[in-house]
Every structure is written in C-alpha cells, then in structure tokens.
Amino acid sequence: AVVEGVGDHGCEYMTGGRIIILGRTGRNFAAGMSGGIAYVLDIHSDFRSKLNTEMVEAGPITDPSEIAFVRGLIEDHHHYTGSELAARILVDFNRALPRFVKVLPVDYKRVLEEEAAKAAEAKRAEYNLPVVSGVKHKKEEKAAKLQDLEEAIGDAKAEKKRALVLDKTKGFMKYARRSEKYRAASTRTKDWAELSSRLDEDELKYQSARCMDCGVPFCQSETGCPISNIIPKWNELVFSNQWKDALNRLLMTNNFPEFTGRVCPAPCEGACVLGINEDPVGIKSIECAII
Questions:
Q1: Fewest CB atoms less than 10 Å from the CB: which of 37, 175, 205, 285?
Q2: Where in the sequence is the domain holding 215, given as residue range(s)?
Q3: pLDDT tens digits, residue range 159-204?
Q4: From CA 277, how far away is CA 269, in angstroms rounded?
Q5: Torsion sign across C-alpha atoms 264, 270, 273, 275
C-alpha cells in the first residue's frame, strides 16, 4: 500500500505486507509491529522521535532490489491516483531516497535472514557436483516372477480398505468436510423421503476422523438436546465401526421431540471447535446415519 500520511499508532500490530508512507506520521508508530516492512519518507527529519522502537529497528534502504520495489510502487501510486506528491518525488528520486527510513521488526528480520540462508544453502547443494568422475555400474533389472496368476489380480475390496486407513489424530488437518448433497428437486418433490442423500459409511469415517474429541459441542438452546460432551464419544465409535455401541451412546440423550420437532436444527455444529477456522464436523450427518 502507498499512503501520503498517517495519524497516531500507524502500523500498530502490523503482521505482514509492505507499506510506503510519503508524508508525516503520528506518535507511537509501529507499536507492536511483528511483521511486514514500512518505508517512511522523513521529509522533516522528525520521524524517529515518533517511532516506537520496542520491537523494530530503523535504517536506510540500501538493497538495490528494495529501492526498485519502492520506486515501482510510487510510480504505480502516481499512475492510478495522479498524486502530485508522488510526481515530485519521482522527478528527483535519487535526492529523496536518503530521506526514506526502513522500519523492520527485529524478529521478522531474523526470520528473513534465516530463510535467505536456507535458500542459499539449497542452491549450493543443488550445484554441489563431484569433481571426480565415478565408476559407472550397469544396473541389472530382474523381472519379478509371478508365483500365481491370481497374484496379478488386485482385490478391489482390500485396496479400498487399505485406502481407508485414516489418521484420527491429524484428521482435522488432513480431511475436508463431507456434506450431504440435496436430492434433485424433480424427484424429492414426489415423495416424503429425506431432503438430502445420506453419506455412506466411508464418507462418515472421513467425517468422524475430523473430530478432535474436544468435548465442547452441545446444543446451546434452553430447550435443546442436553447431550453435553457425548458427541465425540459416538464419533469415535463410528470411526471404529462400532455402530451398535454408537447407537446405545446416542440413545442416552433425549432429543425432546415435543420441543424441537422432527428435524433437529443441529446447533451443535455451530459450537464445533473445528468451525473456528475450518468447516465444522458434520455432527448431524453422523447422528442421522446412526439412527
């Protein structure tokens, strides 16, 4: 971003990105700044007195690539806004360059230096070829012998079973939510069956593998389903393919049909901890499948 001035607390708690400030700043600049870089044009030589140096360091711009980057952004700013200030700076950019102050968080600088060192090391390793030519050996490839023709024919069920060895510990990171799909309107309007198509057992295993066993989800409404932290327990049983036990666990709850009606609104999904930054576990889908 390019701006022509900021007030107090500019770039406070900034975590990333780049910003160029072509004018004055207010007090307490860069307080709590942990990432990103700010380039400030200090025309009146008073910027450092307004800078909060607790987490950042200030210095000139010396890297040619950074200088080109700053100039390019100012040119874009002038092109899109017609800024007179940007035009004056670009007319004599070399004169204005020493006035720029680069504000960089100390920890962010350390991370950038570590990444640059790793990239340089990887590049050196890529071209680290031996100077002495080695002895070439011929590779003998032996064809595998089949003891029986049946060995060549894969067992589809076994392959599928191996593919379904899911990671319950990291499932919430690895697997996406499986959602029920609505049936076609042309068919669902002609019967009294469910509105959506239920998930099959394999999809439900993916769904239950996403459960983090937090014990949090429960219906928050006053007349809702007081199942407390039983949800992760039956999710675990479904994942282990223990459907009878899952049903017994589910029947320990009381869904109060006289209050909630035939269709549960499933507010427990809204309380799912995974829903903070991902799609929540399909608790309602699993519950319907158990029943």
A1: 175
A2: 159-290
A3: 555 555 777 777 878 887 877 778 888 888 888 887 787 787 778 8
A4: 13
A5: positive
